[in-house]
Amino acid sequence: MSTPNHTQGWPAAPLAPFGHFKDVRQSFGRGSGSPLVAIDNITFDVTQGSLVTLLGPSGCGKTTFLKIVGGLIPATSGTVQINGRNVTAPHEDFGVVFQQANLMPWRTMIDNVLFPMEILKLRDATAVSRARELLASVGLEGFENAYPSQLSGGMQQRVALCRALIHRPKLLLMDEPFGALDELTRMEMQDLLLDIRAKTNATVMFVTHSISEAVYISDIVAVFSKRPAVIADFIKVELPYPRSAEMRYLPEFTELEHRAGRALGITR
Amino acid sequence: MIKRIENTVYPLVGIAVIMIAWQAYTYYFGLNRIVLPSPTDIFWASIANWETLLRESWPTFLESILGFGLAVLVGIPFAVCVANSRVLNLTLYPILIATQSVPKVAVAPIILVWFGLGMQSKLVIAFLVAFFPIVVDTAAGMRATPSGLLELARALRASPLQVFTKVQFPAALPFIFAGSKVAVTLAVIGAVIGEFIGSTQGLGNTLLTANSQLDSPLAWAALVWLSALGIFLFGLVVLAERIVMPWSGAGHH
Ligand SMILES: Nc1ncnc2c1ncn2[C@@H]1O[C@H](COP(=O)(O)OP(=O)(O)OP(=O)(O)O)[C@@H](O)[C@H]1O
Ligand SMILES: [Mg+2]
What we know:
By secondary structure, chain A is an alpha/beta fold. Chain A contains eight helices and ten strands. Magnesium ion binds near residues 62, 63 and 175 of chain A.
């Protein structure tokens, strides 16, 4: 199922256990009345270096689950382990990309990318040149000193991606990062993400609404059911890397899309 | 480019129309210049008395800018504390609102009793009127930090000090400058109120004296200089904003 390749491909040791989620449950108090159960019993494992998408209907708890994995909110109950450690708080091995680019308007592109390094007190000449390389790798050479207000949404999202990668996280958490982009930019960003993933060997957990996006980029699609969410289906995508736009029209691809659609309850 | 020309031309045309109408009105109806001097009267009074006007502008300028500066120096840290501490917020905000509802003009005579007829009393009044908008806007800015940026900082385990210096404060700068623009014009008003109530110098004093001597052209000239002073101080704040926030003008519109 793997095609070794220099730009995109399976990581060297695909079977090392990396993320372990067991019976993860999250309910929110609602002042009066019964608490709202956002996610109910999510159990799955993620292998080192794989790209897992969380696909599910709006409001089912994907963001909530991603925040739990990132240590931003504690789960009501259940086990959340990354790299063998229980997650209780954010960790510098994690990089996060939100649905909004969340750039700081007062910082230039390069300073936005370097923000994590400043917080971690690691900003030095090497970090600056790494930030330049990252920006160049996403096609933003020459925009280092531009301000966010001078860039398009797609460019801003690419900067946000660089910012998430600057401190070489082992786990990249992405919450609908391309949701606000037009279809064409979105496809470019998907290929860019796959390239970066192949280069950095990071494990990626990626939230999306889009079935075709999920199938196109993933090793695994974890389909969430409606709230209270459980895993409705756990789909292995055995399409070879590097992925290319033509694959979107393959029968296997369509079959996987159907399967995801069935899991979501849109098709039968 | 055309927009830029329009931006300067239209206001100038507006002013010119008013001036011509004013001039024509005073001329055709033969108004006494004590009641309403014509623009040319005011212009000549301004030229003839330029030394006095310039000299008297200086104390008013100092009172306003020092009062404003003090309001910035005290107001911003005050607002930061109030916005970040629930206890301080609950303790101090009601007092602040209560003091704000006291008319400053009514307090001015008391301030003069405390601080004398010199510059300090005007500076204090300017400070008092400038303080409130700075505190309110800064505090609003502190609370309006985009939640996405706070979450980002939290994901990186930023310390509270890092969150403040690298996220909260820069995000509040547009608010702080908005408050400062209001505050600086209020500071001029505060200084003039002080000069009206009791002073030996300043443009407010010149205006009052000229008025009592029925020298309306000079009184109006002092008024024009006062507005020029206000515009100048406002311009200084705008300049500071451009320097401190170079990104704000960088957008493509
Ligand atoms: N802090 C909170 N307090 C109370 N309820 C919350 C909170 N955060 C999320 N919820 C609820 O939990 C449910 C899941 O929210 P979540 O944001 O995780 O959904 P999502 O799958 O990411 O949706 P979308 O695809 O629209 O982004 C929603 O019903 C939401 O109202
Ligand atoms: Mg969401």
